[in-house]
Design brief:
By secondary structure, this protein is α+β, with helices and mostly antiparallel strands. The protein has seven helices and 19 strands. A seven-stranded mixed beta sheet has the order 5-10-19-14-11-13-12.
């Protein structure tokens, strides 16, 4: 008795909707999958429209002044809003089975479920790898509207030859070697308050920690008492630091050296190092990111994820299609996963900072 494609498609769709917990090992590519974490449902933002737009205020009008009795006023109104604008990025993956694979496994409940689950996991694993990889890169060029804006797009290193700490990060270094200063539609070369904090270091030592302290203090802005801040002005909700493996190990070594009363029998030392293999600075974890291994000038990024936000398009995120076949591969069933997203920075002065080795002039 033959089995129709419609029957098999229904079987696939029903099984995918109710898969149990898997019991197999996977050779994961990343240790942390940080962007998969921030794109979790509880942390991402949902938006619509043809692009993602937000307003940012760089300066106040300047109406305040000291006055004498009976002085006259000259009321002034100024449009203090500037619009930031970023494009949507479309992403997709898929997973497939051959009809013969399904027929060979469909009479074995465990075998069929394992087949469905591993193929589905493969499709989402590919998505997670791609999102993670691009999350730690700039786009290919200033005109690239296919790839998302990663952390280095918003948190720029100092210009070549510049060794002065401060809000001087303004040059985006794209993957093709080109550069630019227009970030999310605003030119940081002309708008000084659309630049991030950056500093250079020579080695990971006590002077490096001093620079870290300075960066944290410099990027911590508080709303004046009596002035109602905007809805998203809640700094420090989720701040982490990110490094490559070599710097992470050096920071752990430095933590051990600073622990003067190290009497622990643990070879890792008495200093607090959690099971994730990281130390902390100002109670913020320092996380290893494989994508930063080999990156020129060894940057350390501090990111406030309340100011660099994952945005997904309303009604179009991780959508699974119905199982379908094609006449060119008539025995193959494929499920497609589609979505539209982008990473948006709403405040470059408070979104974090970057410390890096000096860039030669």
């Amino acid at each position: 008795m033959s089995v129709s494609n419609d029957q098999l498609a229904d079987l696939i769709a029903t099984t995918l909707a109710d898969l149990p917990q898997g019991e197999y090992e996977v050779m994961w590519d990343d240790q942390n999958y940080e962007f998969a974490e921030i794109y979790h449902e509880s942390r991402r933002q949902i938006d619509g429209g043809t692009s993602i737009q937000r307003n940012v205020v760089f300066d106040e009008t300047g109406n305040a002044r000291y006055r004498r009795m009976y002085d006259t006023d000259n009321p002034a109104v100024q449009n203090v809003h500037t619009q930031i604008n970023v494009p949507w990025c479309q992403i997709g993956s898929h997973f497939s089975w051959d009809k013969l694979e399904i027929l060979r496994n469909k009479n074995s409940e465990k075998g069929f479920i394992n087949l469905m689950e591993t193929r589905r996991m493969d499709g989402y694993w590919s998505l997670a790898n791609l999102i993670e990889e691009r999350g730690w890169k700039t786009p290919t060029s200033p005109t690239d509207n296919k790839n998302p804006y990663g952390v280095p797009y918003y948190l720029n290193m100092l210009n070549a030859g510049d060794v002065t700490a401060g809000f001087r990060g303004q040059t985006i270094r794209y993957q093709d070697g080109s550069t630019g200063t227009v970030c999310a539609g605003v030119d940081a070369a002309t708008e000084a308050k659309w630049r991030n904090y950056a500093d250079v270091y020579t080695r990971v030592d006590n002077s490096f920690l001093r620079k870290l302290r300075r960066a944290f203090i410099s990027t911590r802005f508080r709303t004046p008492r009596g002035v109602k801040g905007p809805g998203m002005d809640k700094p420090g909700r989720s701040v982490k630091l990110y490094t490559n493996l070599d710097m992470n190990i050096e920071l752990q070594d430095l933590a051990d050296k600073r622990d003067d009363s190290n009497t622990s029998k643990d070879l890792a030392g008495k200093q607090l190092v959690d099971v994730e293999g990281t130390v902390y600075f100002n109670r913020r974890p320092i996380v290893y990111i494989p994508q930063l291994d080999g990156v020129t000038y060894n940057p350390l990024y501090c990111v406030d994820w309340s100011k660099i936000q994952p945005i997904v398009q309303d009604g179009y995120w991780m959508l699974e299609s119905e199982p379908m076949t094609d006449r060119s591969q008539h025995t193959t069933f494929t499920v497609f996963i589609d979505g539209s997203h982008q990473n948006l920075c709403i405040n470059r002065r408070t979104a974090g900072f970057v410390l890096h080795e000096a860039i030669p002039a």
